[in-house]
Amino acid sequence: MTTNKDVQQYVLLPVRGLRAQGRTASAEMRDFLIDTATQFVAAAGPRLHLASFAGAMVKPVSAPGLKLRVVDSIAEDGAKLVEMTPQEATALREGQPGLKLVPVVYYYPQVQRKKIEARTAAAAGPKIRLTLVSKADGKPIADAKVVAFTDFANRIGLGGTTNASGIIDLAFGVMTKKLERLYVYPRRNFWPFFKKNVAVTSGVKIQLLPVDLAFTDGLRQFYGDAPDNAGAQVKVGVIDSGIALDHPDLTVMGGENTVQGEAVNDFGDNGGEGHGTHVGGIIAARGKRPGGMRGLAPAASLFSFRVFGQGADGASNFAIAKAIDRAVQSGCDIINMSLGGGPPDDATRAAMEDALAAGSLVIVASGNDDRSPVSFPASASPPAIAVSAMGCKGTFPAGTTGDDAVAKPFGTDKANFIAAFSNVGPEIDLTSTGVGIISTVPGGYLPMDGTSMATPAVSGFAAKLLSQTQNILTMPRTPARANALAQALFASAKLMGFGPNLEGQGFPK
Amino acid sequence: MDKSRFIFRFRGTGPIPSDDLERIRALPEVDIVDSTSRMLLLQATEEDVKSLASAMPEWVLSPEQTVSLPDPRPKILEEAK
């Protein structure tokens, strides 16, 4: 049941600007904003102030059962201050992808405040013991990340990592009878776990499904198993957290570490969660099922440009721009960037423009902020090719994190959906499979979700396409070559029924 | 005024002109932390680099900033009590 405390304030506005005007404003977006303004005027008058809002305006919108309250408006076709629950906000983002919905933020003076010492207080309370075991043999699963929410809408919960016995004790301060959502992320060789409304007694035993490389995930569903020569004569640069050089399915031809203060030739995995190794595997892993994993362009030459430092989860824009330059100098035809976020910056944009001018195509993830606007640098499109993530029901087992990514709208094939986490907007150029994708990680294999996975699917497909298209492959390295490859990629794309803000020109295959 | 780090990227044709490089190196208040064939990572005050950028139109200036891996995993914003 929705209560007043569930309702939050948001600003509803076009993806670009404060009013639905100009080239990027669709008629649907404009009509929606005008319609909400009409409701606002009819109910309370245009000069209504927040303090005098009587809560009389209840506006039904396109999604069934969804209501929003229009509190204030800057113009008929302009931004609105609205109130709704987080669940309704999610539904609205899905129903109106051309609009941006951002939580209202209040700024405070930067005074020192005491932190909530929730963990100290909680330690004295009852504990919930979670035990992770393999569904295959019952053996404990160590070093898995657990995230347990008691109040998902407000992101209240506890998390941690399982010990050698596969156990984690979550010390909630009061007796918790239910976990609203439980996520488990193993390091390798098991599917990530997801379940809503987990009943809690004294303990919970979770069985994780081992990864079977014969399973048909999204990559195999849409692209099959690539032939040995796919991607031949093509170089692909991966700007990421490094690629595990000792993985049996991967051959890294070269690269560079552009992190300041670290060894230049240390472009292997950075000791994190194997993000770059996963990305590299989707593009060019050379294994064969069921004993190994195969990417979309196994004959492509893979280059690793590491921009995330040892143990770091942030990369400087200098390291990224330098990595783009180095990838171009190494002759990379395609540059994959499964990264983003933060304000736009001219240096990264200039490096991407220079790469395009030198004939290299830069393919970038749109970001994973739950249908938010496309993040930078993907938002710099062009020169970037921006990629959203699509999922397909049946290509990930039930009870895994893929379930959490399922969201409207569904495609022409009702099994397909744009992932709930994917950023969307007018800058999206293409979509590809990015939910429950099995690929290489240090020491094994792991399914991952993200626009980070959809992007290398496009890069791998582009490498295969370029390899097969001799008239582009033999062109001199000029902007015309990169543009010819981009046009060939767009020409190969099939519309999946989501509309341009979610899928751009479609799914290349 | 505190010094920060800025990226100074050459947008002209060809390599970085040696005159430009000498001009930047000659500034005692601007430190070159790192360099590539097209870029310099500078440590300087914002006032100094903006002054430099306004005098060198073939260069673009950006503050150094951090980019993260896009992670779809939900985050705990508040620990349960």
- What characterizes the major β-sheet of chain A? 8 strands, mixed
How far apart lie the N and C ends of chain A? 44 Å
Largest sheet of chain B: 4 strands, antiparallel
Which strand order do you get reading across the main beta sheet of chain B? Answer: 2-3-1-4
CATH level-two architecture of chain B: 2-Layer Sandwich
Helix tally of chain A equals 12
Regarding CATH, which class of chain B? Alpha Beta
Please compute the radius of gyration of chain A using only Cα atoms.
Answer: 24 Å
DSSP helix fraction of chain A: 10-25%
Describe this structure in words.
The complex is a heterodimer of chains A (509) and B (81). Helices cover 23% and strands 26% of the residues of chain A. Chain A has helices spanning 27-44, 86-95, 118-123, 218-223, 275-284, 317-329, 346-357, 402-405, 451-468, 470-473, 479-492, 500-503, and strands spanning 8-14, 59-60, 67-73, 80-84, 99-103, 127-134, 145-151, 156-161, 167-171, 178-185, 193-199, 203-208, 235-240, 252-257, 301-306, 314-316, 334-337, 361-365, 384-392, 416-418, 430-433, 437-441, 444-448, 493-494, 507-508. In chain A, the strands form 6 sheets. In chain A, strands 13, 14, 15, 17, 18, 19, 20 and 21 form an 8-stranded mixed β-sheet that branches. A 5-stranded antiparallel β-sheet of chain A has the order 2-3-4-1-5, with helices on one face. The longest helix of chain A has 18 residues, at 27-44. Chain A starts with 7 loop residues before the first strand and ends with a strand. Residues 14-19, 40-64, 71-75 and 102-123 of chain A have low confidence and may be disordered. Helices cover 22% and strands 35% of the residues of chain B. Chain B contains 2 helices and 6 strands. Chain B has a 4-stranded antiparallel β-sheet. In chain B, a hairpin with a 3-residue loop joins strand 2 (31-35) and strand 3 (39-44). Chain B is elongated.
